[in-house]
TrEMBL record:
TM helices/strands, residue ranges: none
GO BP terms, alphabetized: proteolysis
Family per record: Belongs to the peptidase S8 family.
Annotated GO MF terms: serine-type endopeptidase activity
Signal peptide limits: 1-20
Keywords on record: Hydrolase, Protease, Serine protease, Signal
Protein name listed in UniProt: Subtilisin-like protein
Organism for this UniProt entry: Myriangium duriaei CBS 260.36
Amino acid sequence: MHLFWFASTLCAILAEPISAVDKCLSNDSDVRNLTDRYVVTLKQKVNLTEHILHIESVTIGRTQGDNLRCEGVVRRYEMPGFKGYAGFFSKSIIDRLKENPEIDTIEPDQAWNMVLPPREPPRHRAGYSLSLISHRRIMINSNEYSYDPQAMTGTYAYVLGTGINIRHAEFEGRASLGYNAVNIGDQVSLDVNGEGTHIAGIIGSRTYGVVKGCHLIAVKAYHHPHWAVVSQVLDAYIWAANNMIDSRRTQKGVIMLPVTGRFSKALSKAINSAFRDGVSTVDCAGNKNKEISARPGESSYAITVSATDESRRRAQFANWGRGVNMYAPGTWIVSTTPRSKHATGVRSGTAQAAAHVAGLILYFKRLHTLPDAHGTKVYLLRQALDGVVQEPDGKRRPFAYNGSGR
């Protein structure tokens, strides 16, 4: 340990007022102001608890005259292969952290702008998507879903996002509250945005789901309808990965990450570490109609999905390029909404496309003994319909398929 690192500053420590901690926790949920907010990862041999205790001894509750300053660790992260924390730190503290040999990476916290696709005119074939992923040929006049009933139960989807209306009738009591990373310790995960409930319905609702009997676990990663904060998304992701590993669900589970943004070293590192422990992660390519040369999280282990319309043409809003692993239906998708126990609605986006693939991963894991996350990804891509979706540069990408033989 390098406990001498901050020794020269200890004489300046003041007593920690409770109000300072309260202010930090309150400001942590403010997506409008990310000033002095950072995410830090540690090298693996470092003792996280000792490191954070030492950092806190010189940061939390520091004052400057009569002005209370929010500074210190707010969130801590730990899972197999990954350690870190997030908090409020002044430039002088960050400069010292950069010299600390225990530190692996430091990055400013950031807010990801969740760009929604433009509104589209109604389609005549709303409800087409399950037919599209279960037939090699497009069924012009049919929404038939061809699937193996044995694949419908016994699996777990961790749905990161805005929460889930777990009382929706379509979930038949299979949805539960897992964790709320927006308000730490608060299990009230109301989905006021609706995106989380819609995505959960695509994965596992009775009528609209790819796997109609799976368990759905709500992991609230953001609340604002247009913004997600990386430190909160990372907190939600690590809880989901740890819960899946501790519950021995890696061979029957998936993490659905329906948000994307600029590169985050910490999130990429977490996804890669979870992958090595068997955790399958699906994320979305984004809705900006631009080429992505690398995956949104820069993680080579996440399965990144972009969107098509009902004719397997790339959706006009969908990102494309070698950062995309595969395509799935993502326009005019009917699914559950949180307004009531029976409410449904239509949404479009690469998150909707990714939800279909998250469902397919559970489908394949239930039917086959897939050894780990790598084997799952290989099998998923092997089953896909190769070269179906043409991109603007002329290259073709695979389209999701459940291998029904139809």
